Amino acid sequence: MSHQGTTRPTLLHIDCSIRQNGSVTREITAIFAAEWRRAHPGGTYVYRDLGSSPIPHVDEAAVAAGLHAREALEENQRAAWAVSEPLINEVRQAGTILLGVPMYNYSIPSALKAWFDRVTVKEHMVGDPGGEGLLTGKRTIVVTAQGGSYGPGTPRERYDFQQPYLRALLEQIGLGRDVEFVRSEMTLAHSVPALEPFRPMAEASREEAVQAVRRLAVTS
Ligand SMILES: Cc1cc2nc3c(=O)[nH]c(=O)nc-3n(C[C@H](O)[C@H](O)[C@H](O)COP(=O)(O)O)c2cc1C
Questions:
Q1: Among protein residues, the one whose CA lies closest to atom 19 of ligand 1
Q2: What is the pLDDT of residues 12-71, one digit of tens each?
Q3: How far apart are CA 82 and CA 54, in angstroms?
Q4: Which residues form the pocket of ligand 1, taking CB atoms under 6 Å from any ligand atom?
């Protein structure tokens, strides 16, 4: 079973950095999106900015709305569903999902967590490893940025609750089979004086990320 979204190739692009200017994740996802749109001239492009337009946190009514038949919903559940439903439809209609994700306090921005809490509904959950849900078969590109460095062998490796967490979340909703992570690390080297010696590392990492998304955009 494969769910590639609508017949036209569709890219759902989500950013969540609180920065509108100087954001590394926004810069890299924008490059992917521009290349993807060039490669798919007839495609559909959907953009959502959780940084400037956050969605409300999930609540009891929203969870209940996801569990019950639409016609059985109470008024507050209907209102809660009106927030969740467009987000769920967007992710179902996409063939490719592009997430720009800064590291905040070793994990993901709360704005993106709020989005995951809305789109993690029972029809998407795969249950057992290897199971399938309505989103299985889509491609996901995750562009991350970290102020420091958390790669294998670094002193902070065990503090990385961003990439392993995202992988687990994506697996849970059927997006774990075809997922690519693109990292830009040491981004704070440009603004924190103590990290100045790491500027070449930051620049090399950013350049690698640019090359990676250029490649990925034309093969998705
Ligand atoms: C609220 C907040 C928390 C952050 N926490 C971390 C952190 O735990 N580890 C880290 O390496 N960088 C941290 N940073 C730095 C960001 O990860 C870094 O600036 C990154 O480039 C942000 O993504 P952006 O450039 O797309 O805005 C934090 C930044 C902010 C604003």
A1: 147
A2: 999 999 999 999 999 999 999 999 999 999 999 999 999 999 999 999 999 999 998 889
A3: 15
A4: 17, 19, 23-26, 102-106, 145-148, 187-188
Q: Kindly report, residue by residue over 106-151, the tens digit of the pLDDT.
A: 999 999 999 999 999 999 999 887 789 999 999 999 999 999 999 9
Q: Which atom of ligand 1 is nearest to the CA of 103?
A: 17
- Distance from C-alpha of 39 to C-alpha of 21, rounded to nearest angstrom: 27
10-217 architecture in CATH?
A: 3-Layer(aba) Sandwich (3.40)
How many angstroms does the Cα of residue 2 sit away from the middle of ligand 1? 35
Which amino acid residue places its CA nearest to atom 10 of ligand 1? 147
Report in angstroms the alpha-carbon separations of 216 from 19, 23, 162.
25, 20, 21
Domain ranges of the chain: 10-217
